[in-house]
Amino acid sequence: MCTSSSSISxxxxxxxxxxxxxxxxKPAEEHRPYVIAHxxxxxxxxxxxxxxxxxxxxxxxxxxxxxxxRLTKDEEVIVLHDRTLQxxxxxxxxxxxxxLNELKNYDAGSWFDPSFKAERIPTLLEVLQLVGSTRWIxxxxxxxxxxxxxxxxxxxxxxxxxxxxxxxxxxxxxxxxHHLIANVKRMKPEAVTGVxxxxxxxxxRPPSKLARRANASVFICGKGExxxxxxxxxxxxxIAVYVYTLNSINDxxxxxxxxxxxxxxxxxxxxxxxxxxxx
Length: 279
Ligand code: G3P
Ligand code: MG
Fold this sequence. Notes:
The chain has a single domain (17-84, 122-277), classed as TIM Barrel (Alpha-Beta Barrel). It contains 10 helices and 9 strands. The protein has helices at residues 50-58, 100-103, 124-131, 153-164, 178-187, 199-202, 207-213, 228-236, 249-258, 268-277; strands spanning 34-38, 64-71, 77-79, 136-141, 171-175, 192-196, 218-222, 240-244, 262-265. Helix 1 (50-58) packs parallel to helix 3 (124-131). SN-glycerol-3-phosphate is lined by residues 38, 66, 68, 81, 140, 174, 196, 220, 244, 264.
């Protein structure tokens, strides 16, 4: 499946994977957080498009690329943040109501800038092929509460695709839906996983508890949600902490001082230079 629509090969090259394990909290004395490109370099190209991911793979020093996955009507895996099309494409309505072929007619770039009008909603496969062995990939699986009948299908399909692409040791699975994340771990015990914090639902529960319940090793939250006590709890329990979305040097600096393990940013290419200086 992996090579069917592309000539790109997945030969393992010397890359970040040879020496980085982004899923463990780093010892305080060598604290340099990992830099994660949120929906690609989404400050400079339309989010979750091949253009955005190409910028992230071209920029030096970025450790990981984050993206969001969903299913189409014909159950293909696409990379799209919103449940609906109108914010980031020329389409309208729920993405799940369209086949992949239908979705490919929509322009996914003009909303950002007319120069990106050729961008289309990519499939996960297209992004895996583009990023290849150059970066880790954080696949955020978006749950579809309206399709309980297909529960488990998306995660199973994603895991299979990642395996077939030979990328299982380069991928990290995350979700706001912790049942889904526990499910990933059941299907693929060696998968590395993270739980996203939902303030309303998870308030008061320590990161280690949330992560352990889903058998995850990373805790991810918004910059306004993170408390020092949460970092302390995670560190004590061997859970890494990633924070989003840190787009200013000031925000990133604050989080570096707090000791986070991963910085998720829309302009990860700019944040990288700051993080490197703090090494
Ligand atoms: O993984 C961090 C972030 O992507 C989670 O929120 O809404 O941007 O997918 P969202
Ligand atoms: Mg996301």
